[in-house]
Amino acid sequence: MPIRVGAPKETTPGENRVALVPEVARRLAGLGAEVLLEAGAGSAAHYPDSAYTDARIVADAAALYAAADVILTVQPPTAQAIEAMQSGASVIGFMQPHRDPERITLMQQRNITSYAMELVPRISRAQSMDALSSQAAVAGYRAALMAAELSGRFFPMLTTAAGTIRPAKVVVIGAGVAGLQAIATARRLGAMVEGYDVRAAAREQVESLGAKFIDIAVSAEGSGGYARELTEQEKQQQQDILAKHIAAADAVITTAAIPGRPSPRIIPAAMVEAMKPGAVIIDLAAEGGGNCELTRPGEQFDHQGVIIYGPLNVPSQLAVHASEMYAKNLFNFLAPMITAGELTPDRADEVIAGSTLTHAGEITHEPTRSRIAGDPS
Ligand code: NAD
């Protein structure tokens, strides 16, 4: 019997994305899978049920979970969803392995095989499955548009009969996937952009987008291409130099993150208070507490004339393309596991093994397992 792959409607408030788009449904059907979709699952992302010509529309989540062997999700499944899944089913999506230990334990107990898209190793072979990158690119693009929208200034230089307008100065802190997309978008809007990152390798990427790199002479390359936390002395050196650039900026977009750690605090209140009236801070790190000391996650407010906004779940705001990119990441992850319509995952494969969170009644991701077991090491 062919495997049944299904996508439910997301239930997290504010989540507009869907894990399956019509084109991916067609490609899964082409691999011999039977494709199921909960009625209305794509509607918030503007994919009506009628567009899924290769999927069977099921009336509700309970019917979907009862039938599906593989469940595709955006947000981690709720306890109620896990309870409704068949024992032995697989679920692929963002799993936030560092949060809600009860949910992960429930998947373990219910013998659910869960694959966390956050854990897909960042090796070249897995680039097409890299959902962190695809969604970060969406967030970076949107952050630049939010900065332009909230600013009372033009981003481009304008020469008009009423005089010449100078281009806006935009500073982007953190030049990973989101930061580079924010730089590229702000440049396209005509702003003068400066970028900064603690990883020395970011300089070339920032400059290749036509932005200036802010040199702080601190290199904090951690493992796996990520950043490490700075020492107190390095933090001070960073703040001394950044303060001048931030004081001159019309907009600051912050994206700095360290995996598994709260967002690094880079902009203290005093730095905000030295900014120009009407300047804007878009803090994309709000989800992890924020790069700015004053950020209130999910809120937009004015602090002494500076507009601070720490948006949450930004990819959901661009749901059509965020869903398309995400659904393709899921397809690229799942397709190699399907042979002649059957699920045949190679458990020794580095990508599959690395991203498996729970399987066969075990928590297979060691850091999550020891954290839940309360092992301090
Ligand atoms: P991320 O979201 O973890 O962090 C965003 C950026 O913040 C990073 O560039 C990081 O260096 C920077 N940062 C952290 N602390 C900082 C501080 N105190 N001040 C300034 N900047 C700070 O990063 P990401 O976008 O996921 O990318 C991380 C790395 O992974 C990059 O090297 C990226 O090129 C690499 N990457 C590789 C692949 C792949 O090979 N498949 C895919 C995507 C990203």
Summary?
By secondary structure, the chain is α/β, with parallel strands linked by helices.
Explain this structure:
This protein has 377 residues and is an alpha/beta fold. It has twelve helices and 19 strands. It has helices spanning 22-30, 61-67, 79-84, 101-109, 131-150, 177-188, 202-208, 232-247, 269-273, 319-334, 350-355, 366-372; strands spanning 4-7, 34-38, 56-58, 70-72, 90-93, 113-116, 158-160, 163-165, 169-173, 192-196, 212-213, 251-254, 280-283, 300-303, 306-309, 338-339, 342-343, 356-359, 362-363. An eight-stranded mixed β-sheet has the order 3-2-1-4-5-6-18-19, with helices on both faces. Strands 11-10-9-12-13-15-14 form a seven-stranded mixed β-sheet, covered by helices on one side. Helix 6 (177-188) links the parallel strand 9 and strand 10 (192-196). Helix 5 (131-150) runs parallel beside helix 6 (177-188) and helix 5 packs antiparallel against helix 10. The longest helix has 20 residues, at 131-150. The model has no long low-confidence stretch (mean pLDDT 95). Nicotinamide-adenine-dinucleotide is lined by residues 122, 127, 130, 132-133, 136, 173-179, 196-199, 202, 225-227, 230, 255-259, 264, 266.
Q: What descriptors fit this protein?
A:
globular, alpha/beta, 12 helices
Number of strands: 19
Strand order of the largest sheet: 3-2-1-4-5-6-18-19
**Percent of residues in beta strands?**
15-25%
Percentage of residues in helical conformation: 25-40%
Give the averaged pLDDT, no decimals.
95
Envelope shape: globular
In the predicted model, the low-confidence regions spanning at least 5 consecutive residues are none
Oligomer: single chain
Helix run count = 12
Q: Compute the gyration radius: what is it?
A: 22 Å
Largest sheet: 8 strands, mixed
End-to-end Cα distance, whole Å, is: 44 Å
Bound molecules: nicotinamide-adenine-dinucleotide
Structural class: alpha/beta
